[in-house]
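Input.
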Amino acid sequence: MRAVKTVISAAGNLKRENPTMNELICLRAIRDVNVPKFLQDDLKLFNGIVSDLFPKIKEEPIDYGILEEAIRKSCFVTKCIQLYETTVVRHGLMLVGPAGSGKTKCYKVLAAAMTSLKGQPSVSGGNFEAVNYFVLNPKSITMGQLYGEFDLLTHEWTDGILSSLIRVGAIASETNKKWYVFDGPVDAVWIENMNTVLDDNKKLCLSSGEIIKLTEDLAVASPATVSRCGMVYLEPSLLGLTPFTGYLTSGHQWLTACWFSFKVVCPSKDLRF
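Output.
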């Protein structure tokens, strides 16, 4: 039901933006919500199903205007656009992929692009807002340090890192978006406590009884958690080795020459993870 609701929400945004569109709105909403989470092999099957359901509709490329231009200056476009589309319809999402697939760079590039466009009209309605993101590794600290804990000896409540950040963000006067990034493996031990934050309640429930209202690989994550999150999957094969070798050889002419010779012997299409 959450997946259906997300599609309906995306379709509503598109309908308000383009009131004359009919079936194309439904097709775009289905694509925007589902394509980011698919692997390359899954996309072939998905496109086949879509072509059967909408045989007479020709989907035109979407013009993201100044947002796409800003992202092109930084990095890979498609996944950044998919991440933006997911943030429009979901307030909680997961960036999934192996190490080196570009997860960190993806959200940093989008945040920089949106911040540079602050105040300008957005393709999803409204204006772009600056983004502040806070990064922490939930597996490097205890649950008490993350969410807060009650001291049985002093009978005092001590806020955790996340509860402190959300408390400050909830009462902040500026309109900047705030992204709380959990950079680490998903574990049911800490992620289950986020269910009320990720669903429509948008509340962080602490063990002290306080409720903070928000203003606005997944093998061990339960379906309840996954269903509450938007998802963008990043594959290392989309990047290949070129970004890494380009960074390592920059400023070293002899390395650049060696890399050019190597590419002649071993074509780039073979240099995948």
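The chain has a mean pLDDT of 74.
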